[in-house]
Each structure stands twice: as C-alpha cells, then as structure tokens.
Amino acid sequence: MPDAVQLIGEEKDFSSNVIDYFKDILNSKPDRNDVDINMNYHIVSVFGSQSSGKSTLLNILFNTNFDTMDANVKRQQTTKGIWLAHTNELNTSSDSLTKTNDIFVLDVEGSDGAERGEDQDFERKAALFALAVSEVLIVNLWENQIGLYQGNNLALLKTVFEVNLSLFGKSFDPLKNNKVLLLFVIRDHVGVTPLSSLSESLTTELENIWATLNKPSNCKDLSLYDFFDLKYVGLAHKILQNEKFIDDIKSLGDSFAFNISNMDPMKTRGIDRTTDENKIIEPIFKSNYHRQNLPMESWSIYAENCWNLIENNKDLDLPTQQILVAKFKTQEFVNEALQLLLDEFDKVITDDILINKSMLIEKLLLLKNKTLNYYIDHASHYTNSIFLEKKTVLINEIDKIFKPKIDFYLNHLIGILINQLKTSMKNYNSANNNNSPFVEKLNANIKDTNLAFEKDVKEFQKDQLIDEKTFDELLINFSKLIKDNEKSLREAHLNSIINRINKTLSIKFKDSSINLLSHPEIDVWDKVLNMFNITLTRILVNYKVETTREFNEKDGFEYNNEKYSEAVEDEYDFHLGFNKEKNSNIYKQIRGNAWKTLDNIIHDYLKEDSILSILKDKFETKFRYDENDTPKFWKNEIEIDQAYKVARDYSIGLLDILSIAKTKDNVEIIPDVQLPKDDDEDAEDDDIYQDEFGIYHSQKFSHILNELQKENILKKFRKQINLSVLDCKRSTVRSTTHVPIWMYALLVVLGWNEFMMILRNPLYVTLSLLLLVAFYFINKFDLWGPVLNVSQSIIGETRSTIKEKLRDFVLDDGELSKMPSSPEPHSNTASFQSQQEKQHYTSSGTSRKASNPVRLDSPTLQSQASQTLSAPTTSFSPIQSTAPAKEDYINEKVEIQHVPPYSAITE
Ligand SMILES: Nc1nc2c(ncn2[C@@H]2O[C@H](COP(=O)(O)OP(=O)(O)OP(=O)(O)O)[C@@H](O)[C@H]2O)c(=O)[nH]1
Fold first, then answer.
1. pLDDT tens profile 493-532
2. Structure confidence at residue 687 (pLDDT)
3. I need a surface site. Which of 164, 440, 753, 897 has the fewest CB within 10 A?
4. Of 265, 300, 316, which one is at a domain's C-terminal end?
5. Residues 520 and 433 in one domain
C-alpha cells in the first residue's frame, strides 16, 4: 500500500515530490509504455467537512494510506492542503482486493476547518483545482446535515458550481458533453430516512443553488445536469453498524471497479447483476468524465500548471494547459529520441558505408525508423496536432543529422559523374570523332549525367531520407554545376580548336612567308596576303557555314570589277552550340591570332641581319649569274662595274620592298581585326616602342624597318658588296697575269743538257714516267690531301724517332762523363779529341768543316745539343738534320754534317 503524498501544501504551494511520486509509480510498472496503462487512469477527489470520515472512507475503499484522526486522542484537522494517493486495488464485494486501472485519489482539506477560519480562498481554489483534474467529486455528508441547510455544505456546493461555470461555462460544448460526477456519500445513514428521500432533498437543494447562480450569458439556459451527473450513496454508521458500513463501502467499490477492473465483481461472486434487483450496479467511471487526454506520466506537470494558474488568480484554460503539457512532453520525447539516435549514429554509419549507396540507405532507414518509433510510442498519447507537429520537428532534426553523410555520398557521386563527363569529352577530343559534333556529344553526355544523378537521389527521396524540397534543390544545384562544367568543357574544346588552328597556321605561315620573303619581288606582300587568306580559309573550311545569300546592290561586294552574291564576311560555326555572335567573335579571335602569328613570323624573320643576308644573296645572284643562272665571265673591269651597279640598285630596291608591307598598288597592309596583345604587352602600349639599342620601332604590322635600321643595313650592305666586287676584280687580274713566252724559251735553252741527260738515261726515264703516272692519278682522283697527310706523318714520325734517339744518347753520355777516368786507351784519346774539338769549335766558330770528326761528349756540346733538342722544332739547328745514332758516338765514327748558316745558303 503506497503512502499518500501531499500535492498542495498548507501554504498553497505545489509539492515538488509529486513528480518523483509519479516516476516511482511508473517505474514500478514493467509495461509502463503500454498505451492502456499510461492513458487509462482516473482521478477522484473528495470534499467534505473536517473530520467527516473522508480519509477513513478512502482508505477502506481504495486501499490507500491517508492519515486519519484518532478520535480517542483529539478531534482536530488531520488533512491539510490536498493529498494524493495512488491505488490500483479496490475493496469490492469480492473476497480479495480487486485490481483496477490506476486511480489517483485527492483528499482535500476539510472545508470548515477551524484552522482557516473565514478564509474561503483555499476552499474555492481547491474546488477549482479538483474540478480541473477530477472525473468524480465525492461529497462527504452526514445524514443529519441533509435538509438542515446548515454548515458549509451549501456554501461548498455553491462554490463548486460557480467555479465549474468559470472553468467550463465559456467554452461549453454540448457535443463534447464532458461532465463531472458528484457522488454524494451520506455518512451514518442509519436507514430511517430512505436514501431516495434524502437524494430528492439534496437534488432539490442543488437545483435551488443552481438557480440562484450568476451564470454567464451563454450558460443562462443550461441546467445543472448539463455539467454534472448526480449520484447518492448511503453508508451505515461506522461505529454502530461497522459490518454494514464495510459492506456498503464494498458495494461502492463494486461501482468503482465495474467497467474498469479486469473482472466483473458480480460475476466473481457468482451473482448475475441483471437478475439481482437489489444489486444493480451503476458504474462510476464513464468515458465522458475523462477530461484530460494526457498520459499518466505528464499528469503532475499538468496539475502543477493548473494549480499555479489558480493560485495566481489567472484564467485557467484547460485545453491550452493540455496543449502546453503536450508540447513540453513531446519535445522531451523528441530530445530523447534524438539522443538515442546520436548514441548509435557513429557506430552504425561507419566511413566504409558512406560511399555504398544501398548500405547507407539501409542503415539510415534503420536508424530513422527506430528513432521515430521511439517518439511515436511515447508521444502519440498527447494532443494529436502537437504530436504530429513535433514529429515533423523530429524528422527535420533527423534529416539534419543525416544530411552530412548523405551529402558526403552525393558529393562523392557528383565527383564521379563529373569525372565521367570530363573523361568522355576528353576521349572525344583525343578520338577526334568528327562523326557527331562536339555539342551533340556534350548534350547527350550531360543528359546521361543528369539522369544518373537524379536516379540515385530519387532512391534517397523514395525512402524519405531526403524531402521533396531538398530533392528539388539538389537537382537544381547539380544542374547548375553541370552547366558550369559544360561551359568549361566548351571553353576547353574551343581553346583546343584555337590552339590547333594557331599551331597549323604558325607552321604554314612560317614555311610560306619565309619562302616568299627570302626571294622578295615587287609583289611579295600581295603574295603573303594571298597566302594568309588562302591558308586561313582552308584551315577553317570544316567550320564554314554554307549560306546562299541573295545578291543585291546594297549587300553585294565588288572584286576585280565583278559583283559577288556572297557576303563579305563568311559565317562560321565551331560546333560548340554557340550563337551566331559568339561564333563570329571566335572567328575574329582566330583571325586576330593568325594576324599576330604572321606579324611575329615576319618581324622575327625580317631582322637587320637577315635582310642584309637576303640583299647580299640577291646581289650575288644578280652580280655573278646571268639570266640563265650561268656564272658570268668577266673580260674587264668595266663589265664588272656595270654588273655591280645593276645588282646593287636591284638589291637596294628590295630593301624598300622589305622594309614596309604594302601591296604593289602601294596600299599599306593593315590587319582587318584587332591583334591580340602579348602577355608582357601593356594594353595601353603605344605602337611605337624603343628596343635595347635605343632604336624606335613601330608595332604596326606593316612597319618592318625604320629609317635608321635601313641606313644601317645599307651601310653594311655596301661594305660587303664592295669587298665582293674587289675580289672579283682581283681574280680578273690574277687570271690575266701570265708567264711571258720568252721565259719558256730561256728555260729550254738553259735546261737542254739536263733534259737530254734524263732522256738518255733509261733509269731516269723510267723514274720520270713512274712519277708522271703517279702524279697523273693523284691529280685525277684528287688524292693530294691523303698524300700530303701521309708525307707529313712520315716526316713527323721520323723527326720524333730521331729526337728520342738523340735524347737517349745525350743523357747516357752525360752520365758517363760523371764516372772516374778509365785506364782504357780510347778514353785518353777521347780526352785528347775533346780538347781538339774544343779548340776547333772555339777557333772555327760557325764555319766548321764537315771533314773534322768530333765527339759530342764534351759538356759544351752536350749543352748545345740539349738546347737544340729542347728548342722548338721549327727553329733551325745544324745538329738537328744530321743527328747521329748513339752507337756511332760510342764507336767514334760519327761525323757531324756541318751545314752552312742560312745567310750562306741564300748567298
Ligand atoms: N460516526 C462515524 N465516525 C466516523 C465515520 N468514519 C470515520 N469516523 C471517525 O471520524 C473521525 C475522523 O475521521 P477521519 O477519516 O480522519 O475524518 P476526515 O474527514 O478525514 O478528517 P480531516 O482529514 O481532518 O478533515 C475518526 O475518529 C473516525 O474513526 C463514520 O462513518 N461514522
């Protein structure tokens, strides 16, 4: 039997213990979340005079544990404020306590307690509170008070009626028909006056009271029975008829238990209540008494809110209060459900499933359903609109938690799809697939990409992991992203087209224009211009739009005095899905690039040096060759001078042609589109600029050379052609200078004997013939080079061998001279000869005779020899040519060939 708890304290404060009291009750139930248990509870309040046996009745009837007064000790008030006790056992006619749904009983402080005196405030507030929360109001009366119109009974009932009207009168809805049962329990009913008589008296009293009430206008015509059901029960005297007293309470218990207990108490006792006339049981609890649609767990919050409003004399609007409680509790369940989700989320949604769509959807769905189910289980008992409202809040919160993970997957998917799109279009570029235009291929790929994305996102949306709005937003954003990529893919393809065209143009322009400019003629620039237009047209032929335009006088244009129906500017389509204007701009860009390329090629090629070399080349050709490209043969200097003048004037004329690009009609060539600026060029740059040599140039296309440059070239050119002419004249002089004939005659006369001697000697003849034949073949096959090489290497080899031998000899001999004197006779001889040599060298100086044999072991000679050896090979030395071998010196048989000095030879 649980103890009662004070709900409203003596000081009219709501007790904080109530929440815990309810928690304990709920926790004691294993199936606390069961809807039947949580919602099917009843509230019963009891009113009556002080010490009228209220607590005694409640304790017996509901098996509760309210404090009761011990009359043997002192007659005083025991219940102060409002107490609450819970029960799910009733004392019925059954042999044992009958289990019922949960019943909460409110024992209200006695209405006429001496302690509060004339203070009616609490009584009124307590009545208001009891009406706000209870289904049944037990009014405890002594039998002897009925019909006496005394005590606080009438006042109490009047108060009850008044507060009832203030609570439910304004918003009375007959369809809802919510009522309160006023259960009058007549105590100490000894039976002298029958209960029916007492009931009538009381009913009359109540109706009279109702009639005297000040009712709101909308309740004027309403009767007491629109708000209340009345029931009267008599209980025997507790002291005098205790057994009957208990039986009467048990009978009352039957009424309470009926309809709400699991068993029909009548049947339990084997009594068929329909056949037992004396025991017709009227059920106490009816569905239309149930006022609040709140689960048991939130009743304490509701009761507290109501009491606070009552206590502060504020309007008590019960539906609003119930909605407030519903809002509070449902939010609490939303939070609990979300916490439950967060606790599991990271464990279930692991990184490895983030890129696995089906797994991700499955796990997210699992978590979502679990979270929602938790909420539904707990919050569905509250006001439906609030329940649904908070359910939406919960779903939004779940979506927020899921969003980063879904976004991760979708970003991953977007990355893959964009890459696929790019790769596919890259392959188009590399495959150079001209069968379907780029734009068609791009559009088809974009359509596929959009569909693939939509398909995946739809799977999330289908399972309500993404709402409709997000679904639409995702598709719109993806479409924007694709548009950006489409733009960049088009730009990239356009750039590749432009680059390809530029490259081709550059190669073709380079070959053609250098070829033309290196052989300049009077119409060279017309040819360059023509080459430019033809090359560009050919390269762009695939992009040209075939258009037939009607000729009219206005649009037609004239060329070579003929009218053409074609428009001046061709129309191009670069197959990128661009409009006419954009295509035209691209064409202009390409044309500008082409002009720029041509401009660069021309200006790079036509530098001072290259122009000088062109002029020189042209001069040489004109000067040295005739019209048939045959070399000219000069007879005299006058011819040379004439040819020189012609060639020079011709070449100088070419300089004028090359220095400015203009047609033969003397019209300067100006690009028909704006030339793109180089990166390092300032957009504001003037056309005139100064180079590192301080020379001013014009950036205009046609301006190749300025006057200063031309002057420089001319100066150098003249210098070079003068040299060329001088060479020519010299060669003429050489070819004309020949040996006089008399010299040949003299040669025959003087050399007659020698010729004869050779002719007469067969050896000389054979030798001469051999030499002649050798000379013939060497000359015929031009073998002078190899012959010269062979001769040189032979001489070189011989020379180095001799040098080496001589060095070895000198060194060995030097060492010998350091040795002590030998007793052998030739050493004395050597010493003597050395002396002689010395004298001889000293006396003879440079005019030595070859007949005097000498040794080279003297220090002087050695030093001379070594000096000679170390001297450069080109220097003249008497020893060098006749250097004897080492052995010859040792055997003293070597003779030095004394060569006379150079002066002597020349003499
Ligand atoms: N004569 C008579 N006495 C009763 C009856 N019921 C209870 N009593 C006695 O009346 C006295 C007061 O009983 P309580 O149950 O404490 O009365 P109460 O109305 O709860 O008192 P308060 O809570 O102080 O207002 C006790 O001594 C009871 O034994 C009854 O039916 N008849």
1. 888 888 888 898 899 988 888 888 888 888 888 898 888 8
2. 58
3. 753
4. 316
5. no
Q: Which of 10, 46, 50, 51 to mutate to test the pocket of ligand 1 (most atoms within 8 A of CB)?
A: 51
- Burial (CB count <10 Å: 0-12, 13-18, 19+), residue 267: exposed
Residue 737 lies in a domain: no
In a domain, 476, yes or no: no
**761 and 873 inside one domain:** no
Which of 50-54, 430-434, 709-713 reaches the highest mean pLDDT?
709-713
Indicate whether 321 and 307 sit together in one domain: no
Q: What is the DSSP string of 237-274?
A: -TTTTHHHHHHHHHHHHHHHHTTTSSS-HHHHTT--TT
pLDDT averaged over every residue in the chain: 77
Q: The complex's ipTM?
A: 0.97
Q: How far is the CA of 55 from the centre of ligand 1 (A)?
A: 7
Q: Is the minimum distance from the CB of 56 to ligand 1 under 6 angstroms? A: yes
Residue 140 Cα: closest atom of ligand 1: 19
**Ligand 1 near 71 CB (within 6 A):** yes
CA of 57 to the centre of ligand 1 (A): 8
- Whether 80 is in the pocket of ligand 1, judged by its Cβ within 6 Å, is no
Does one domain contain both 764 and 793?
no
DSSP characters over 358-418: HHHHHHHHHHHHHHHHHHHHHHTTS-HHHHHHHHHHHHHHHHHHHHHHHHHHHHHHHHHHH
Quick check: CB of 64 below 6 Å from ligand 1?
no
Within this chain, do residues 575 and 519 fall inside the same structural domain, yes or no? yes
- Beta-carbon contacts of residue 555 (< 8 Å; ≥ 6 apart): 549, 567
Supply the residue whose CA is at minimum distance from atom 2 of ligand 1. 238
Residue 268: which pLDDT band, with cuts at 50, 70 and 90?
very low
C-alpha of residue 143 to centroid of ligand 1, in Å: 14
Binding residue positions for GTP: 48-55
Ligand 1 centre to CA of 65 (Å) is 14
**Which ligand 1 atom is the nearest neighbour of the CA of 235?**
31
Identify which has the larger pLDDT, 639 or 478. Answer: 478
Q: Which atom of ligand 1 is nearest to the CA of 245?
A: 31
Ligand 1 pocket, residue 187 CB under 6 Å: yes
Local structure of residue 678 (DSSP, 8 states): P
Tell me which of 263, 284, 316 is where a domain ends: 316
In a domain, 484, yes or no: no
User: Would you say the CB of residue 50 lies under 6 angstroms from ligand 1?
Assistant: yes
CA–centroid distance, residue 580 to ligand 1 (Å): 105
Ligand 1 pocket residue status of 199, Cβ below 6 Å: no
Q: Is 520 in the pocket of ligand 1 (CB under 6 A)?
A: no
Which pair of tokens denotes residue 400?
């927020």
**Nearest of 773, 761, 658 to residue 705 by alpha carbon:** 658
Tell whether ligand 1 has an atom less than 6 A from the beta carbon of residue 59. Answer: no
Q: Model confidence over 295-351: pLDDT tens digits?
A: 888 888 888 888 888 888 777 777 788 888 889 989 999 999 999 999 999 999 988
Any atom of ligand 1 within 6 Å of the Cβ of 292: no
pLDDT of residue 557: 44
Predicted local confidence at residue 884, as pLDDT: 39
Q: Has residue 698 got a pLDDT over 70?
A: no
Name the helix (H) or strand (E) containing 889.
helix 886-890
Domain hosting residue 814, numbered range: 786-906
Domain-located, residue 480: no
User: Do residues 777 and 803 both lie within one domain?
Assistant: no
Our count of domains for the chain comes to 5
CATH number where 78 lies: 3.40.50.300
Averaged pLDDT for residues 89-117:
78
Nearest to 283 by CA among 249, 247, 250, 259: 259
pTM for this one?
Answer: 0.59
